[in-house]
Design a protein that fits this description.
The complex is a heterodimer of chains A (277) and B (300).
Chain A (H helix, E strand, L loop, with lengths): L1 H31 L3 H4 L14 H7 L6 H12 L1 H19 L5 H11 L5 H14 L5 H24 L4 H9 L4 H12 L1 H17 L2 H6 L8 H7 L8 H21 L1 H10 L5
Helix pairs in contact in A: 1-14, 3-14, 4-8, 4-11, 4-13, 5-8, 5-11, 6-8, 8-11, 9-10, 11-14, 11-15, 13-14
Chain B lengths: L1 H33 L2 E4 L2 E5 L3 H7 L7 H6 L6 H26 L6 H13 L2 H11 L6 H8 L16 H26 L3 H9 L4 H12 L1 H16 L3 H6 L11 H11 L5 H27 L2
Antiparallel strand pairs in B: 1-2
Helix pairs in contact in B: 1-14, 2-14, 4-8, 4-11, 5-8, 6-8, 8-11, 11-14, 13-14
The chains are: A mainly alpha (277), B mainly alpha (300).
Chain lengths: 277, 300
């Protein structure tokens, strides 16, 4: 009987924690679908309950920086910023996993250490450099920065994955006369699809959610990404929770959908990227 | 092996090394170099060694001696980051561990885990909005909770007062980041064979003893990951502070990353020397952890 009681308490506490964790999200969603007068003194009041999409229409077509455009920009930046570094990193990771050459371990170690570099440590020189090259305030400039900045963890992740692949397969292909390129593209990459999906999900999520790089590298409102548009919507004299909520829901909906669909890969990415097996 | 594959090695490495040199390694070294120069706006006046660093430590936004001696914010960005680590890391670690352990035999654990993990998936900018929102005097659910439990006299916009802004944000960051700790511990728990715990139970060990003497030691690798990653995260915190308080009121919730942004891109004229010095300082703080992680945690 005593055991059943503890089980009950544990279940109860677990669901209380879940409730605490979900309430802010619930609140922001409630706020996004109701008029300002109804939520300004608390979205948990339901005496008057009007559902409206006006807030969404407002931020979608917001004059200075329409969120419709910003979401599009986020996609335009996040997709190439996912594909480019994965491809570039896979090539490098393969070398680190399969070949030995002078300074290999030192080079790999340096790259892994760069994984925890603060964004602030590169931004000023990159800002100057891209200004010189005419890449500042362009999507390409931001894509290049994201691609480079994502490389260290992707190289690490893929190198750790590649060393678990059976080397015999590659060797026998080589004996049959296949070049390193053929082996890499025809054998190694296809075998790595699950790892590549995990990385893609995480890197896309990281770029989509990034705020700091976009804040510095994009200055024209029509080029803004979604995360960057949110602070702009804040309101000048009092905070427009209704608009902020609608913009927040739209901005987080993309990573949330990806997480919901590819949860397994997402979690595997988070864990595989950090834990040695 | 080396001579034969030289061409392949170089060809495969060049794209990565090119991007890294141009956008990461080169800029990193240059930022450090910038921190040693005397700047007047965008112009370099000369080489000053560590002057910018000394300047930083005499600055109220970075180290506020008055606040420090009173033990109340604003204490400066550097102490704020350290306080952030001191509160955030143990709370997230313990909470994540307990949740991961307890949720193993809770019905609907997958749903609960997904809910707790939401904070990790959500953009930190949205996290900042959410925090500012829940702490709002009128529209915030945190204050409604206080009213419901009879603490109505405490109701205020928690992020708008120097005494509470920093701690309110740190608490919020725990809410955002606990999902990470929980997921890592959950994965760690899966590697512990159930028979091990079962046999201890048969031998008469209490549930608490099993947890303390068997589970926690076996989870050490997971703990290292959680603690190091959480420290790094707390050091680099930027988005939620920028959105929720912009470091205010009166610098009471500012952090190093935000001060760097202010010096480099907010102030007119910019103060590149000190901005680069803050970035270098931040990097120095992360570097020890990064080297440890690289050496012992992630490289197989």
């Amino acid at each position: 009987m005593k055991v059943r009681k503890t089980t009950l308490i544990i279940h109860f506490l677990a669901w209380v924690v879940a409730l605490i964790w979900i309430i802010p999200f619930l609140g922001v969603f409630m706020t996004s679908v109701r008029p300002y007068e109804e939520i300004v003194s608390g979205w948990w009041h339901f005496e008057k309950f009007t559902v409206t999409l006006d807030n969404y229409f407002y931020v979608w077509n917001y004059r200075t920086a329409p969120l419709s455009k910003a979401l599009m920009n986020s996609f335009l930046i996040a997709i190439p910023s996912t594909i480019i570094p994965i491809f570039v990193a896979a090539l490098a990771a393969y070398v680190f996993a399969r070949f030995s050459f002078p300074v290999r371990d030192m080079l790999f170690f340096t790259i892994v250490v760069l994984m925890s570099l603060p964004q602030q440590m590169v931004i000023l020189p990159v800002f100057f450099l891209e200004n010189q090259l005419g890449l500042w305030n362009t999507h390409i400039g931001l894509i290049l920065l994201h691609s480079a900045f994502g490389l260290p963890w992707i190289i690490l992740f893929l190198r750790n994955f590649f060393v678990t692949l059976p080397v015999e397969l590659e060797e026998s292909a080589m004996i049959d006369g296949a070049s390193e390129f053929t082996v890499f593209f025809r054998i190694v990459l296809p075998l790595s699809v699950p790892a590549l999906v995990s990385i893609a999900v995480l890197q896309f999520n990281w770029v989509w959610n990034d705020f700091f790089f976009a804040l510095i590298m994009l200055a024209s409102p029509e080029k803004f990404v979604a995360t960057q548009t949110i602070p702009v919507l804040k309101g000048r004299y009092y905070i427009r929770w209704d608009y902020l909520a609608a913009a927040s829901v739209l901005t987080m909906s993309v990573p949330l959908v990806i997480y919901a669909l590819l949860q397994k890969y997402y979690v595997r990415g988070v864990i595989g990227g950090t834990i040695k097996k | 092996m080396y001579a034969k594959n030289k061409k392949v090695i170089i060809l495969f490495l060049v794209p990565a090394l090119f991007l890294l040199s141009l956008f990461v390694i080169g800029p990193m070294l240059y930022t450090f170099y910038m921190s040693l120069l005397d700047w007047e706006g965008p112009q370099v006046k000369g080489f000053v060694g560590l002057d910018n660093y000394f300047k930083l430590f005499s600055r109220r936004e970075i180290l506020n001696y008055r606040g420090l001696s009173r033990g109340r914010p604003p204490m400066g960005a550097l102490p704020h980051n350290i306080i952030w680590i001191i509160i955030h890391v143990p709370l997230c670690t313990v909470l994540g561990l307990v949740l991961a352990y307890v949720l193993r035999d809770v019905r609907g654990a997958t749903i609960i885990k997904s809910i707790i993990f939401l904070g990790m998936v959500t953009p930190m900018v949205v996290g900042g909005v959410l925090l500012r929102f829940i702490y709002d005097k009128d529209a915030g659910v945190f204050n409604e909770f206080l009213r419901v439990v009879g603490l109505g006299h405490l109701v205020k916009t928690w992020t708008a007062y120097p005494d509470t802004a920093l701690y309110a944000l740190i608490l919020g960051s725990v809410w955002i980041w606990t999902g990470f700790s929980m997921i890592v511990y959950s994965a760690g728990l899966e590697t512990i064979p159930p028979e091990l715990l079962e046999s201890a139970r048969v031998d008469g060990a209490s549930e608490f003893m099993i947890f303390k003497e068997i589970v926690i030691p076996l989870l050490k690798p997971a703990t290292i990951v959680v603690v190091t990653m959480s420290i790094l995260w707390a050091l680099k915190i930027f988005d939620i502070v920028y959105v929720a308080t912009l470091g205010g009121p009166g610098g009471a919730s500012t952090v190093l990353a935000l001060e760097m942004y202010m010096d480099a891109f907010f102030k007119i004229p910019p103060s590149y020397g000190t901005a680069a010095a803050i970035a270098s300082l931040l990097t120095l703080l992360t570097l020890g952890i990064a080297v440890y992680v690289a050496k012992y945690v992630v490289v197989r």
